[in-house]
């Protein structure tokens, strides 16, 4: 029975990593060898990675991606941790309505607001810049983030709040020194859930950016494949460059992230 | 011995002069509003206008360049649903494909992730490593991995070569798995399942770990086999998680189209066209044609579909919570 389980588990592990395997090995093949179809490169070379990195201004794209992702994550954490704190523990008129309103936005498909966002940004002069990506990204994470953070703040014992109050702490102070530290796993979960899709985001970025020097990594990858003679060894090298930081982030934070995610869904 | 009673804070509050109590109440409200102000301000800037103008646009014709809209009332909706033969045909085909994705992806996700979680729960060694490996598709889901899939599924790609070397040459797809109209959509469904199995497995695993081991041991002692335990005990206990997974999958199928845009762009011959992709095309790929109103109307039809499906599942949802 155990042996059967391990066989099944390892079989699925192979399926799970299958495209990565080809991505990783492909990034170490030459232009000629990528056409042969063997998994392991006969003479692994770093040339493809180096050439792809330098030829496509990948450093610029990388820094652009980093900037957009960092601004989005910081924006999400600041804006929605404040709001979720208010939804979870403060008492003010409109609280329940606002909370459900933000959560209900979960049902608005991204494609429904994509076009109006582009039109709005054109009118505001935001289209084509990084801020024009960050604002809708932050706004777009509202439903899930508010749901997760409010849930997590609500599960913190109210006695702690009362104790801090009777010690003379104001709301800002209670929020900062009691709730933020205690809800750390939820914040890490939100940060990962925001960072990963933002890093990989393609559609809004595609339709709003036209200046190459502002491109993010996914657009760099796309321009690589639409160039005259796309070669899969370079496409795989570029893909690997995009994917590695996300995997590193996940491995670094996975303990918090998984606990936070499971806790959030169980509510 | 003094006769003063201990004054409770609550009493003190009640005995405050009305003016001070009112001031305190206003202070509390202002603090609450101050905390939600940034979120509301951002929504008013980015959300309110876009939702409202997008909704209005769905009742107008516009190509994005002329200064004014031409109002057509429900015309765009009528065009999409039946009036304009080319649009209505596209819509029906895309809706059919979306429906297939919406049914097949969650079902297959459950069929793969539940046994996987049960097996993962039954072993101790390697569990943490395997869990990370299973999670990779979720973390990297996006354009880079879709290109890797395109490479693997290409006519001279790894899957065809693998089939050849296993002696299953008859299953090879000479146009590639995404190039053959018969295999393109099923192949994309497999890729979608591949990327949704991670979260589902994780949720099932956490559900399994919450089940009291005593119940299962008792069942085993009473002579129940593994299959019986799975079917009669584990499956019913995990039903709320299954409902959550199915709902998430249905929502993703209605909302998501990025993988379709990158891997096939709806091809070959519209066989992988989905509703989200169709709306994207109407909004951004039609040049000077006045199709923006149609795009907007289709977006709102998708929204209505999402709400209706969720309301239909509301009873199930309540059981989740």
Automatic annotation (TrEMBL), chain A:
Signal in keyword set: no
Keyword set includes Repeat: no
Membrane topology reported for the UniProt record: Multi-pass membrane protein
TM stretches of this protein: 7-28, 68-90, 97-119, 131-153, 174-196, 235-253
Organism: Nonomuraea angiospora
Protein's cellular compartments: Cell membrane
Highest taxon listed in the record's lineage: Bacteria
Family affiliation: Belongs to the binding-protein-dependent transport system permease family.
Name used for this protein in its record: Multiple sugar transport system permease protein
Domain ABC transmembrane type-1: 62-253
Keywords, in A-Z order: Cell membrane, Membrane, Sugar transport, Transmembrane, Transmembrane helix, Transport
From TrEMBL, chain B:
Subcellular localization(s) per the UniProt record: Cell membrane
The entry's keywords: Cell membrane, Membrane, Sugar transport, Transmembrane, Transmembrane helix, Transport
Domain of life of the source: Bacteria
Spans through the membrane: 30-52, 101-120, 132-149, 184-205, 233-250, 297-317
InterPro entries: ABC_transporter_permease (IPR051393), MetI-like (IPR000515), MetI-like_sf (IPR035906)
UniProt-listed CDD domains: TM_PBP2 (cd06261)
Domain called ABC transmembrane type-1: residue spans: 95-313
Topology in the lipid bilayer: Multi-pass membrane protein
Matches recorded under Pfam families: BPD_transp_1
Record's keyword annotation contains Nuclease: no
Signal peptide span: none
Stretches assigned to coiled coil: none
Protein name as catalogued: Multiple sugar transport system permease protein/raffinose/stachyose/melibiose transport system permease protein
Protein source organism: Nonomuraea angiospora
Taxonomic lineage of the native organism: Bacteria, Bacillati, Actinomycetota, Actinomycetes, Streptosporangiales
